[in-house]
Amino acid sequence: MMMSQSSGRRGVAWAIIGGLVLLAGIVAIIVSALIARPTPTPSEAIGGTASADPTPPVAPDPEPTGTVVDPTAADRGWTPEPITTDADTYIRAALAAASTFDTTKSTREEWLDYLDTWFTPDTRFTNEADQIAAMTDSQTELRQGVVFPQDEWDSLAGEDGRVVAVVTSDVTDVPVTDDESGDMSIGTADVTLSFTRSDGSGGETSYDDHVRVSVQVLCGAASVPTPDTDQRSGDCKVVRYFTEPLEP
Question: Of 65, 157, 170, 169, whose CA–CA distance to 111 is shortest?
Answer without folding.
Answer: 157
